[in-house]
Model the fold of this input.
Amino acid sequence: GDIVLEKLVVKEDLFSTLGVDAVEVVQGKVKYLSVKIPWASLVTGKVVIEICGVHAVVRTSGNTKSPEEVVEEMRRGIQARLETLESQQNLVSEVQGNKLDGNKLDG
Done:
């Protein structure tokens, strides 16, 4: 299945949700976001996310970090969020696999 969202507004707290407090979004928008989910092969298939037309105005949040430190903080925050999402996806895949096998998860 496909999910398509257009003309999205970027939330001001985007970076803080990623663990990056050095930067704030002043204004932002995304022209187009598409998510393709292979429902028929959810356990083995790949979810594809396409993002187009990202425009954002950002500012530092009064910190004294260097640009290199801010970029590194952003990289670490995004990496941590991706790892969390991957763990969640693995858990969903495991649950789906157990349902397909007729097994119950131990609680």
Notes: Residues 44 and 93 are 8 Å apart (CA to CA). The mean pLDDT is 82.
